[in-house]
Amino acid sequence: xxxxxxxxxxxxxxxxxxxxxxxxxxxxxxxxxxxxxxxxxxxxxxxxxxxxxxxxxxxxxxxxxxxxxxxxxxxxxxxxxxxxxxxxxxxxxxxxxxxxxxxxxxxxxxxxxxxxxxxxxxxxxxxxxxxxxxxxxxxxxxxxxxxxxxxxxxxxxxxxxxxxxxxxxxxxxxxxxxxxxxxxxxxxxxxxxxxxxx
Length: 198
Known about the structure:
By secondary structure, this protein is of the alpha/beta class. It has helices at 3-12, 20-32, 35-51, 68-71, 86-95, 122-130, 145-157, 184-192, and strands at residues 53-54, 61-62, 76-83, 100-104, 136-140, 165-168. The strands form two sheets. Strands 4-3-5-6 form a four-stranded parallel β-sheet. A two-stranded antiparallel sheet has the order 1-2.
């Protein structure tokens, strides 16, 4: 195999979710395109990596110091949604069902991965609370032991904040799931988070 192809395959297969076969397919796709298109791709990657920042107020991605969400005066500053990663924020935004502000922690507490409370962007959460507008904090973290641990850590670290209600996103059975294939923990969460029919 060509050393150039091997080098590209190695780099592409380092991307999450890209195995050797997918890397080879991507390399062959790039090879079929004009050199100019490959240059656009490489320029876009370099420009993104060099110029993207984390918003100083919420941790979202931005090409400026503060992201568009934080600058939007039409958003509800009384609700703050705490998420693990920027991808989670983007998923919530796609629903068009939430119009508040965010804090992106950048991870969850996970001793097995050497991630402790000091590795999270809790300073952004505290700063948002200290601005005095927040009335509800929605904790939208993964339904995992790490997510639950982080949830309790957040709640305990914000005990000084009076007048703020804490909620979590509902956990349970996904739309279209068959009960017989759902694990016991998920069914338990679905039962505990049941809601009244209206």
